[in-house]
Amino acid sequence: MANQVFSSYNPFLTLEYMQTEHENKYFDRKSAKIKPSDLSPLVSAFANAEGGTIVIGISDKTLEIEGIHQYGMDKANEFIAIPKNGCKPMPQYNEEFLDVINSKGEKDQLLLLHIQPSVDQIVRTTNDSTYLRIGDKTKELKGDDLRNLEYSKSTRHFEDEINKDALLEDLDEELINDYKEKLDATHLPTEQVLKARAFIKNKDGNNYLTNAAVLLFAKNVSQFYPNCRVRFIRYDGNSAQVGTRMNIIKDKTIECNILKLIDEARMFISSQLREFTALDPLTGKFKTVPEYPEFSWLEGLVNAITHREYGMSGNYILVTMFDDRLEIKSPGKLPNIVTVENIKDTRYARNPRISRVLTDFGWVKELNEGVKRIYSDMADFFLDEPEYSEPESAVKLILKNNIIMRNIRQENRLERILTPEVWQQLDELEKLILTYLGSKKTVTRSELCTYTNKAPNTISARLNHLISLNIIKRNGSKYDPKQTYEMR
Fold first, then answer.
1. Contact predicate 198/160, CB 8 Å
2. Helix H or strand E encompassing 229
3. Which of 341, 228, 224, 319 is nearest to 266 (CA)?
4. H-run or E-run covering 210
5. Residues 214 and 166 sit within 8 Å (Cβ to Cβ)
6. In terms of C-beta distances under 8 Å and separation of at least 24 residues, what long-range contacts does 423-428 make, across chains too?
7. Which residue of 9, 140, 145, 481 has the fewest CB atoms within a 10 Å radius of its CB?
8. Which of 259, 436, 437 is nearest to 355 (CA)?
9. What digits encode the pLDDT tens for the residues 423-478?
10. DSSP string of 117-161?
11. 463/412: higher pLDDT
């Protein structure tokens, strides 16, 4: 990186990244043409979320490097003063100038404003508006959303508090080196890197590791936080029994630092999941598919580990497997403005330092695509929507596998019926109908209309053709509006 332009505060912010990368929850670019006062909402948004960097001098429309020199040093100073003059209270921040060559081939500079997260107070603009960075958007908060943010900011993040017992040598050197490599900071001393990411704090003249640093990198995390673990319990049946009827057939506890915990839990849970058969729409043959789409359960696990309340002593993440469902339960209510109703579209990190490291390692996505994809992948597998709830100061995710509907017991007979010759006679809509039926016990015509987005008469014609080929059968009178269809 010797000849490369990059931020000394965050080596991850190279010139190439700042010019080409999509804006995200940690980064935004602005042309220096903008009025300095127009940056106030963005400063407020970053401060109220997980912090972030505003890059001034790159067009957010053309991505050209315009620089700041043509607008004069007075305007640059106005930009620098915006966190102080445009927000209340003033968030902690640092300004940084980077030497660049602008799009005209002239020597120029970019101005970077590194906004630090506000731990225990709300940062508003001078007109009393409050903003929050959510994904790549800056959202003004009002009503319940604003009230929830105020509740959240009333206490300090547990991850930012210091740990007076842990020492630098208690951290996993190999993991630290991996982290430095992710940041393109292998040339920097470990202590400097950890300080730059606020994993080391000074108190009363002494440097201490934070809780986040120990949770993420400790060699023996249970020495400091025995609740940093995932417990997996598998039951025989669809409910948990007690006493003489106790039906636990697997009970495994995984204890390690957060970065290793995800991978260890992923490998173990993967070994416990089963496989089913499903109809392949391309061939008309049955194929083996996993019990749940991998992304759905893994993203649920990653979210639990990332966003749980680590300050709740004695509580751990519990993954429970039943015959018909998988449950992931993590300590602490949904963080900040996230609710069961808006969880697909709203993101907020209870543990921003931890979340950011997991983003650097590729576990956590910067945009709010993870939860949305849990829903879409479950739908692609013809499974019920995931269910989120908040029981007893915890967050629970339930994934259902529809075991009865998906465990097709007549697949050999169907393979004799659905020969390649028969399959080639079917049109694309009929194949789509059979693929859906292959994962359901029974369906109605209206259900198929909704799934295929086709008119009732069109669906009826295809169903009648499939009945004539002896592939499916009708349950009930053909004139009964509640009639159902199923594979023969």
1. yes
2. strand 229-235
3. 319
4. strand 206-210
5. yes
6. 423/283, 423/284, 425/469, 426/284, 426/466, 427/462
7. 481
8. 259
9. 778 888 888 888 777 767 788 888 888 888 899 899 889 999 998 888 888 988 77
10. P-SSS--EETTS-BEEEETTEEEE--HHHHHHHHHHTTS--GGGS
11. 463
H or E segment to which residue 476 belongs: none
Name the residue with higher pLDDT: 72 or 342: 72
Which residue type occupies 193? Answer: V
DSSP state of 11: T
Which residue matches tokens 């043409």? 33
The pair of structure tokens assigned to 160 is 């930012």
Cβ 377 vs Cβ 307: under 8 Å: no
Cβ-contact 228, 315 below 8 angstroms: no
- Indicate the residue type of 228: C
Residues in the chain: 488
Nearest to 345 by CA among 367, 378, 330, 377: 367
Q: In angstroms, rounded to a whole number, what is the distance separating the alpha carbons of residues 336 and 146?
A: 9
Q: Is 394 helix (H, G, I), strand (E, B) or coil?
A: strand
Distance CA(233)–CA(229), nearest Å, equals 13
Q: DSSP 3-state assignment of 34?
A: coil
How far is the C-alpha of 329 from the C-alpha of 390, rounded, in Å? 9
Contact 115, 82 (CB under 8 A): no
Residue 482 has pLDDT above 90, yes or no: no
CA atoms within 13 A on the CB side of 473: 6
What residue type is assigned to position 106 of the chain? Answer: E
Q: How many CB atoms lie within 10 A of CB 31?
A: 16
Give pLDDT tens digits for 277-329: 666 656 666 677 788 989 999 999 999 999 888 887 778 999 999 988 999 99
DSSP state of 199: S
Tell me which long-range contacts 71-75 makes (C-beta under 8 A, separation of at least 24): 71/32, 71/33, 75/32, 75/36
